[in-house]
Design brief:
The protein is an alpha+beta fold. It is about 25% helix and about 25% strand. The strands form two sheets. Strands 1-2-3-6-7 form a five-stranded antiparallel beta sheet, with helices on both faces. Strands 4-5 form a two-stranded antiparallel ribbon. A hairpin with a 5-residue loop joins strand 6 and strand 7. The longest helix is centred in the first third of the chain and has 16 residues. It starts with about 30 loop residues before the first helix and ends with a helix. Bound molecules: zinc ion (ZN). The site of zinc ion has 5 residues, from helix 2.
C-alpha cells in the first residue's frame, strides 16, 4: 500500500480475530510525513488504552513499524521502524497482554535479552540492547509485524484458561 494512503482519522485498534492481525507486514521504504503522522496517532491510541506498545498492523496498517514506551515517561517514547531482533540470549517467562486481544493475559517465554537494529523517525539506523521489559516489548511488537500473537506462544494451561475469552471475541467479531 502507498504510505500516503493511510487515513489517520479512521485509525483505531483492531481486535482478534481480525485477519489483518495475521498479515506479514511490508518494510517502510520512506520515513516521510505520513509515517510521522501515523506514529503520532499510534501513540495517542496506545496511551488511551494504557499500553506499552502498539504495532502498525494493530491499527490495520501493514507496515513494519511500532511505537512503544516501556516506562511511562514521555522522554522514553520510541518509534521503531523496520526492526530486526538479533543476538537473543537467555530465556524468561512473564505475563503479557495485547491491546488487540482484550481480557487475555498469558505467560509468554521469550529470550530475556536481545539487540534491536532499526530505523528511527529521522531515517537513521539505531542499534540498542536491552533485557527485561524493554526486550520483551521489542519482541512482542516485532512478532505483530509477522502476524504472530501472544496466543501463538502461550502454554497449555493458559490455552485452556483463555479459551472462552477467545471464543467470545471470535463470536463477537464483525467483519
Ligand atoms: Zn500485542
Amino acid at each position: 500500500m502507498a504510505e500516503a494512503e493511510i487515513n489517520l482519522t479512521d485509525l483505531r485498534i483492531i481486535h482478534y480475530p481480525d485477519p489483518r492481525l495475521r498479515r506479514k507486514c511490508a518494510p517502510v521504504t520512506n520515513v516521510d510525513d505520513s509515517i510521522r503522522q501515523l506514529a503520532h496517532r499510534m501513540f495517542e491510541l496506545m496511551r488511551e488504552s494504557r499500553g506499552v506498545g502498539l504495532a502498525a498492523p494493530q491499527v490495520g496498517v501493514p507496515l513494519r513499524l511500532f511505537v512503544m514506551n516501556h516506562t511511562g515517561d514521555p522522554a522514553d517514547d520510541r518509534v521503531i521502524i523496520n526492526p530486526q531482533i538479533e543476538q537473543r540470549s537467555g530465556m524468561a517467562e512473564a505475563e503479557e497482554g495485547c491491546l488487540s486481544i482484550p481480557g487475555v493475559n498469558v505467560q509468554v517465554r521469550r529470550p530475556s535479552r536481545c539487540r534491536l537494529v532499526a530505523t528511527d523517525l529521522d531515517g537513521n539506523e539505531v542499534v540498542s540492547e536491552a533485557d527485561e521489559l524493554q526486550a520483551r516489548v521489542w519482541q512482542h511488537e516485532s512478532d505483530h509485524l509477522d502476524g504472530v500473537l501472544i496466543i501463538d506462544r502461550m502454554n497449555a494451561a493458559d490455552r485452556i484458561a483463555v479459551r472462552k475469552i477467545l471464543r467470545g471475541l471470535e463470536d463477537g467479531y464483525v467483519r
